[in-house]
Amino acid sequence: MSPSEAKHLHSGHGSHNRPHGSHDCPHGRHEVATVAKGIPMVATVAKTVFMVATVAKAIPVVATTLPTVAMTPSIVAMTIPMVATVAKAIPMVATTLSTVAMTISMVARTPSMVAKTIPTVAKTIPVVAMVAMAIPMVAKNISMVAKMPSMVAMTISMVATPPFMVAKTLSVATTIPMVDTTPPTVATTIPTVAKIPPQ
């Protein structure tokens, strides 16, 4: 046996007691380790295939959303005037808020104002009581005023009668000049009567 053959048999390579590919063979262990290293790569490839399938399923969904995406600029263009309107309304909202704040402060001051008015209201209560007491008197006066038209009518009728009396007085007044002229006539007749001899 040559030295090379003896070395080959001593190393166990090709020995009839140790078949090629045994677990004791260093060459077989190297192949198993290589396969073991490839298992994670296979798993990664499987994951990649699953991801590709998922993406392929999502393609129809993306296709249906493309019209919506295409409409988005017009929707944004429509909302710009609305945003401008809202921007214009901001000063009004600020004014409203200030008005509300002023109202709140006034409401907060109201209790003190009410407390100040209570004495005034208390002073007016006796006046109200006096007015209530005067109501019956006012009612009596109203009844008297209601009776006054008949009294006025009677007075008018009384005033309407004097013209007849005035007319009579005027007739008397016309006789006054006649009475005034009688004294001279009497005076002129006295001498004539004196010359008449006695019978």
Describe this structure in words.
It is a single chain. With 199 residues, this protein is mainly α. It has one domain (21-183). 89% of the residues lie in helices and 0% in strands. It is built from three helices and no strands. Residues 12-18 have low confidence and may be disordered.
Radius of gyration: 71 Å
The average pLDDT score comes to: 71
Tell me the distance between the termini.
246 Å
List the helices and strands in order: HHH
Tertiary shape:
rod-shaped
> Helices and strands: which structural class?
mainly alpha
DSSP strand tally = 0
Biggest sheet: strands, sense, closure? Answer: none
Please report which band the strand proportion falls in: under 5%, 5-15%, 15-25%, 25-35%, 35-45% or over 45%: under 5%
What level of helicity do the residues show?
over 70%
Number of helices: 3
Number of domains: 1
Q: Which residue ranges are poorly predicted, with pLDDT under 50 across at least 5 consecutive positions?
A: 12-18
Keywords: Membrane, Transmembrane, Transmembrane helix
Biased composition (Basic residues): 9-20
Region (Disordered): 1-28
Transmembrane segments: 49-69, 120-139, 151-170
